[in-house]
Write a structure and sequence with these properties.
7-stranded mixed sheet; Rossmann fold; 4 domains; Calcium-transporting ATPase, cytoplasmic transduction domain A; alpha+beta; single chain; 17% strand; 6-stranded antiparallel sheet; 50% helix
C-alpha cells in the first residue's frame, strides 16, 4: 500500500499542507484508498445497525459483502501481486481470513478485519501524499520572477528559472531574492531564517552571499547570480527532503515484522487441516468446518488489537496535552529514542529579539527610562526587527512616545531622528563607532556580545550615550526539558543550529547542553544527524524552520514546533508540538515507552488465547460458537487493556507526577 514519492503529484490550488485539519482540502480526500476505506466503514456500520435491528439477514449480509468488496479489493490485489513474487503478504491473509469467516457464517468478523486494513492503508496514503505535496510547496519560497539587468543596464522581468550564472538582478525592499549569488552593490538587511535559522536579519553589503527565497528587508541590492535555479540552497533542501522520504527504510509496527512467518504457518496449517482429514476419509463439510474454525481462532484480530489500542490511546492522550503524533508507527519510534537533538532559533528560543537591558555610558545623565523613551521614539518608524523590539519594550512599560522629526533609516546601518530636542542615532557599532573612537562603548559592546546579546549603539548629539542589548528569549521549560530528556535517554541532548557559535554557546549554557554544533547549513544538519545515527543513536530531532526539514526527514523521529513551524517542516516531521511547550517532549517519550510495555503484555495475552484455542481445535473438538466466543473475548480483553492509556492518570504518570497542564 505504500505510495510512490519519486513522482510527485501536482498540489491542488487550494491545498493547505502543514495543517492537520486541512488534509481533505489538500487533495487527500480524492485518494482512492481514502474513498474505499470510507465506503467500507459506512457499509460495515450500516450492516451492523441492520443486524442489531433485526432486519432480514439477506439485507445485512449484502451490506457486509459489499463492505468486503469496497475495502478488500485493493489489499487483495496487492497480496496477489506479492504472491506472484513468491511473497505471502499479510494483506492476502486478511482477505482470506475474512472470506473464510463469511464461508462459515461469521461475516461480521470478516468485515471488521476488512475495515481495519482498509483504514490503515488509507492513512498511509494520506500521509505520503501530504508529504509529497509539501515538498512542492517549498519551491514557492523562491519567487517565480526576478528583475534582471540587461547589457544596457535596463531592468527586465524574467522567470527565475531562466536566470544564468553571471546575470545581475535587482532586489528591492520586501522582495524575495530570486537566486543564490553575491551582492555587488547596495546594502540591506536580509531575513534568511529559512536557510540558516538566524533569528535576526543579516546585514548585507557588497561581497556578501545571499540565498534564493530569503527576504530583503530594506535597501536595494544588486546581486550577481552564482548558481542556476536547480542548484540553489532552497532547491537542494527540497531535494534532500524528497530523497530522505523516499529512501528512508519503511518502518513497520512490531507485529508487521513477523507477518511473513505467521502468514505462511497459518495458511499452511489451514490447508493441511482441510486436506489431510479429507484424504483420510472425513467428509467435506467436517473438514471444511474444522479448517475454517482454525482460521478464525488463529486469525490475528486479537494480535492486531493488542498492538493498536495502546498506541492509539497514547496518541489521543498526547494530542489532548499538545503533542500531535501522526501514526502508531511514530509512537513506537518515540519509545526507541536514545538521543535528542535540538534546533536553536524558534525551538529552544522564541525566535524573535527582545530588549534585555540598556547600559548607559559614562557621562550620560539620562535615566534608563529616558534613554528608552528616546530610542523607542526614534525606532518607531523602523521596520527592522531590532527597532520593533525596542518600541515593544517601551510600550510594555507604558511609555508614551514623543513624535520624532526628520526620521531617516539607512539599510545595514541604523536610524536617526530628532526626538524632544535630541539628535538620536541608533545603529550598528561598526557604523556608529569609527575605528579608534568610542573606547568605553566598544568595551561594553564586546562584553554584551560575548554574553550572547546583539548590541546596538545609541548616540545623542553625535556622542555615544548608551548601548542597547537585545537577545532571543529562551522558551519557558527548555532547561527542564533538557534535564528530563538526559535522565530519560541517558544521553545529553545535542544542539544543531545555523546560528553563530557565540550565540549558540550562550543559549547552550542556559539550558545545560554541552554538545554544540553551530553554523550549520541544512545539509550539515543532515550530516550531523547521520553521524549520531552511525554512533548507534536513535535520534529524535526537534526543529521549526524550513532549514530543519531535511534533518527532520532523516532522523529516526522528527518533531516540529506547531506555532512557528513552516509548512514543509510540519509535513516532514513525525510529530508536532502544537502549543510549542518543550516540556511535553520527555513526557510523550515516556508515554510511548509505557504504550510499548502494554503492547508486549497484550501480545502475550493474545498469543495465549490463540495457543489454547488452536490446541483445542487440533487435539479435540472445539465447537465453532465457543471458538468464536474465545476469539472475540481475547479481542475485547486486549482492547480494553490498551485503552487504559486514555485516562488522565497516564499523562501524569508519564510526567513523573508533575501537575497536569490543562488546555
Amino acid at each position: 500500500m505504500t505510495a510512490d514519492l519519486t513522482t510527485l503529484p501536482a498540489p491542488g490550488a487550494d491545498a493547505a499542507p502543514g495543517r492537520p485539519w486541512g488534509w481533505w482540502h489538500s487533495g487527500a480526500g480524492s485518494l482512492p484508498e481514502v474513498r474505499w476505506a470510507i465506503a467500507a466503514t459506512l457499509l460495515f456500520a450500516a450492516g451492523g445497525i441492520c443486524q442489531l435491528a433485526g432486519a432480514p439477514s439477506r439485507l445485512w449480509w449484502a451490506l457486509y459483502l459489499t463492505c468486503y468488496a469496497a475495502g478488500g479489493w485493493e489489499p487483495g490485489l496487492a497480496g496477489l501481486r506479492a504472491l506472484r513474487e513468491r511473497t505471502l503478504d499479510v494483506d492476502l491473509l486478511m482477505v482470506a481470513a475474512a472470506i473464510g469467516a463469511a464461508a462459515i457464517g461469521q461475516v461480521f468478523d470478516g468485515a471488521l478485519l476488512i475495515v481495519i486494513f482498509a483504514t490503515s492503508g488509507a492513512l498511509e496514503a494520506v500521509a505520503t501524499k501530504r508529504t509529497a505535496d509539501s515538498v512542492r510547496t517549498l519551491l514557492n519560497l523562491a519567487p517565480d520572477k526576478a528583475n534582471r539587468l540587461d547589457p544596457a543596464g535596463r531592468e527586465e522581468v524574467v522567470e527565475t528559472a531562466d536566470l544564468a550564472v553571471g546575470d545581475v538582478i535587482v532586489v528591492r525592499p520586501g522582495e524575495r531574492i530570486g537566486a543564490d549569488g553575491q551582492v555587488i552593490a547596495g546594502t540591506g538587511d536580509v531575513d534568511q531564517a529559512s536557510i540558516t535559522g538566524e533569528s535576526l536579519p543579516a546585514d548585507k553589503q557588497a561581497g556578501d552571499e545571499v540565498f534564493a527565497g530569503t527576504v530583503n528587508g530594506a535597501g536595494v541590492l544588486r546581486v550577481r547570480v552564482g548558481r542556476p535555479a536547480g542548484e540553489t540552497v532552497i532547491a537542494r533542501i527540497a531535494s534532500m527532503v524528497e530523497q530522505a522520504s523516499a529512501t528512508k527504510a519503511r518502518t513497520q509496527l512490531f507485529i508487521e515484522k513477523v507477518e511473513q512467518r505467521y502468514s505462511v504457518v497459518m495458511v499452511a496449517a489451514t490447508l493441511a487441516l482441510f486436506a489431510i482429514p479429507l484424504a483420510l476419509g472425513q467428509d467435506l463439510q467436517g473438514s471444511l468446518l474444522r479448517a475454517m474454525t482454525f482460521m478464525i481462532v488463529a486469525s490475528p484480530c486479537a494480535v492486531v488489537l493488542a498492538t493498536m489500542p495502546p498506541l492509539l490511546a497514547a496518541i489521543a492522550t498526547a494530542g489532548r496535552h499538545g503533542v500531535l503524533v501522526k501514526s502508531a508507527v511514530v509512537m513506537e519510534q518515540l519509545a526507541d529514542v536514545t538521543q535528542v537533538a535540538f534546533d536553536k532559533t524558534g525551538t529552544l528560543t522564541e525566535g524573535r529579539p527582545h530588549l534585555t537591558h540598556i547600559r548607559a555610558l559614562p557621562g550620560t545623565t539620562l535615566s534608563e527610562r529616558e534613554l528608552l523613551t528616546l530610542a523607542a521614539a526614534a525606532e518607531d518608524g523602523s521596520e527592522h526587527p531590532l527597532g520593533r523590539a525596542v518600541t515593544a519594550a517601551a510600550r510594555t512599560r507604558g511609555i508614551r512616545l514623543p513624535t520624532p522629526t526628520d526620521f531617516g533609516a539607512v539599510p545595514g546601518q541604523g536610524v536617526r531622528a530628532h526626538v524632544a530636542g535630541h539628535l538620536v542615532q541608533i545603529g550598528s557599532p561598526a557604523h556608529l563607532l569609527p575605528e579608534g573612537t568610542g573606547g568605553p562603548a566598544r568595551a561594553l559592546v564586546a562584553e554584551l556580545e560575548d554574553g550572547g546579546h546583539t548590541a546596538v549603539v545609541m548616540l545623542l548629539g553625535g556622542h555615544p550615550a548608551a548601548v542597547l542589548a537585545l537577545a532571543d528569549r529562551i522558551r519557558p521549560g527548555a532547561a527542564g526539558a533538557v534535564d528530563r530528556l538526559t535522565a530519560l535517554t541517558h544521553a545529553a541532548p545535542v544542539l544543531l543550529t545555523g546560528d553563530n557559535p557565540r550565540a549558540a554557546a550562550h543559549l547552550a549554557a542556559q539550558t545545560g547542553i554541552t554538545d554544540i554544533r553551530a553554523g550549520l547549513l541544512p545539509e550539515h544538519k543532515v550530516d550531523a544527524v547521520r553521524d549520531l545515527q552511525q554512533q548507534g543513536a536513535q535520534v529524535a530531532l526537534i526543529g521549526d524552520g524550513v532549514n530543519d526539514a531535511p534533518a527532520l526527514a532523516t532522523a529516526h523521529t522528527g518533531i516540529a514546533m506547531g506555532h512557528t513551524g513552516a509548512d514543509l517542516t510540519l509535513e516532514a516531521a513525525d510529530a508536532v508540538i502544537t502549543r510549542d511547550e518543550l516540556d511535553t517532549v520527555p513526557t510523550v517519550i515516556a508515554l510511548a515507552r509505557r504504550a510499548r510495555r502494554l503492547v508486549i503484555a497484550n501480545l502475550a495475552i493474545a498469543a495465549a488465547f490463540i495457543a489454547v484455542l488452536v490446541a483445542w481445535d487440533l487435539l479435540g473438538d472445539l465447537p465453532l460458537p465457543l471458538g468464536v466466543a474465545g476469539h472475540e473475548g481475547s479481542t475485547v480483553i486486549v482492547g480494553l487493556n490498551g485503552l487504559r492509556l486514555l485516562r488522565g492518570a497516564a499523562w501524569r504518570r508519564a510526567t513523573g507526577g508533575l501537575t497536569e497542564r490543562r488546555p
